[in-house]
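Re: weekly structure request thread

Next one in the queue (235 aa):
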Amino acid sequence: MTFMQKPWLSALIISMGLVLAFALLGNSIIEFRNFNRYVEVKGLDEKIVKADKAVWNIDFSASDKDLKQAYNQIDASQKKIVEFLKIQGFPAEGLQVQSISIQEDLYNKTDNQPTYRAQTGIIVSSNDVDKVAAALQKTSDLVEAGVIVGNSRARYFYTQLNSIKPEMLTQATSSAKEAANTFATNTQSKLGKIRHASQGIFSITSAEGGNEYENETSVMKKVRVVTSVEFFIED
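Done, posted below.
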């Protein structure tokens, strides 16, 4: 009787082959999963820095029933502010004088005579944030000089982020590795190589915390970065 004439033997061999194949496949899945065991951790680094650029907006206005007088008043106020800023040590090239806008004030008429309201502003740009902060406290001097100041606000910015990025990313990655090492120790495992890492987003806020307004008006800033790192875990 030939091999083909023994169907029970053929079936037995096929069954044994399937069992062996599933056994090998099962081992492959387990090894694959073990190879792909990893933990994802977050790394954080924060640094307090001082702003290195200031933009100071001074808005002011003048009103009069006579159009020409309204213009003369706003022009005089503009000259007073420029002189004030020169005394505070700001060079002319750092001042940006806005154009004058004059409109009829429809809500303040007397004897059917219109009132004209003139508005303009001056923008001070400086890298000396301490000088801007000090001069900002003297805005009342302009009011005493007869200038109608509508808004006087300085915003402070940190522009040297690229110079501290490498160091902060290194520190954040070290922080992530420390957390991963703790996890590996607690699970009686070993920490392997980095599987994947994402830089995260840098944020710059007020060092004291607060809302968006406080973030802009604070001289001291907090730079923060959070990285996400995946480490392989080995037995």
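Helices lie at 7-35, 67-87, 129-136, 139-144, 161-186, 212-217. Residues 1-5, 17-34 have pLDDT under 50 and may be disordered.
Next request, please.
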